[in-house]
């Protein structure tokens, strides 16, 4: 019950529920009226304070970063776009969809035609009003292969987009009951004319206007006076992201007071951080995972016997224990876990089996070493994870050569470019979106080059299937195909582990959709008075 009460308190402190709702839900948990009233008083006392500068030290920034939302790749651009950008909808911590620029979203009976009513009176940073035409242009640009958008895969199903007064009407090729969730994709920042004129201008309708943009160094924003949700976000006068890719330096910056928030605390130092005065570890389980990616169309990984050998040579339990220190759960070589409602729990868990790995490796006919690329920025403990994997592979007679790549340029020159490397995914709200973004044959972010027509067909069928039981069965078949024939090795699903100086900052809400409150920490937290 305490977990539920803590969550209620967080929602109250953020103004996401009313006092009446708080008391009602507390009563439903069996809390007495007197205690509930006391708890409500404490919870609602945590009201936002305006003013000051909130700073975050974040891993995941590179000199090659762009403000173009289509090109958002890593944590810094992901977090910064949530400060200056505004979206049609956003995901809630409870797993639902909250309307933003889209005031209402409705569907036809067959879930093929979706109508979004655009909210009146929302202003861009350049003074222009957000219109349905801007939304249409945004979706058109991200659906264009020339944009190289990370959202391209989830927009492939769109056939037509048009503005009708204040409404945007989207027609799909196949039915998709999850369409509203797709619109929460972090690439889909609504821009004037969709960003077609200048996608790198950093202009949208979010709580902060871009003031500083030094890729790989620092990003900053000034509060947008006309932000339409000014009571909900944009509490600090200014926000600043300092790029600190080194985990030790990032922790030192938090401890020394140079920043108020940091992401990606390494699990091996969590106990140390917990002993720091005024510092709170903010960890939450979700859909994120740290994969080892193999290109299925590139030798030697185009041989499924070799891919299977490398999967069987992964000691997941040891990896979870030594790398994540328990802040996660074991993976099973497909990108879905129990956080997804239609997860199939009956799929047999793959286990470390050096004998079977050796047999599969021999059957593959491969000899010589296999090059694996890693970097400190791939995920917390990624270099150690590669070395641990090297040791488990050696027990199966497989020689792994490790190349440690520099952090700057890893996401632009190594990930999705080199045939065997470590990476991370934050997960997506639905299975259909996760598969569409990273494993559909035509997806720009297909980072395992898994291109199977039968898999694509199952995905299209699942998205159009409104019967949940039938859809779940299709997703199970897709998971089995990827698990046994794909290029994905998933040793574990991670928790998001951030840290905050709670003496100076308030307003943190646990959000399983992504790190740093799904990217909204800087604009929704506030400095204590």
Question: Could you outline the blueprint of secondary structure elements for this entry?
Answer:
Blueprint: H1 2-13, H2 19-28, H3 33-45, E1 53-58, H4 75-84, E2 89-91, E3 97-99, E4 102-107, E5 113-118, H5 132-142, H6 152-155, E6 158-164, E7 167-172, H7 179-182, E8 208-214, E9 218-223, E10 238-243, H8 247-255, E11 261-262, H9 270-274, E12 279-294, H10 304-312, H11 316-323, E13 328-330, H12 354-364, E14 370-374, H13 382-394, E15 400-404, H14 410-414, E16 420-422, H15 431-438, H16 453-464, H17 468-485, E17 488-501, E18 505-506, H18 515-518, H19 521-524, E19 526-527
Parallel strand pairs: 1-10, 1-11, 14-15
Antiparallel strand pairs: 2-3, 4-5, 5-7, 6-7, 8-9, 9-10, 11-17, 12-16, 12-17, 13-17, 18-19
Helix pairs in contact: 1-2, 1-3, 2-3, 10-12, 16-17
Features:
529 residues, 19 helices, alpha+beta, single chain
Q: How would you portray this structure in words?
A:
The chain is α+β, with helices and mostly antiparallel strands and 529 residues long. Helices cover 32% and strands 20% of the residues. The protein is built from 19 helices and 19 strands. The chain has helices at residues 2-13, 19-28, 33-45, 75-84, 132-142, 152-155, 179-182, 247-255, 270-274, 304-312, 316-323, 354-364, 382-394, 410-414, 431-438, 453-464, 468-485, 515-518, 521-524; strands at residues 53-58, 89-91, 97-99, 102-107, 113-118, 158-164, 167-172, 208-214, 218-223, 238-243, 261-262, 279-294, 328-330, 370-374, 400-404, 420-422, 488-501, 505-506, 526-527. The strands form 5 sheets. Strands 1, 8, 9, 10, 11, 12, 13, 16 and 17 form a 9-stranded mixed beta sheet that branches. A 4-stranded antiparallel beta sheet has the order 4-5-7-6, with helices on one face. α2 (19-28) crosses α3 and α16 packs antiparallel against α17. The radius of gyration is 23 Å and the shape is globular. The two termini are 31 Å apart. The mean pLDDT is 94.
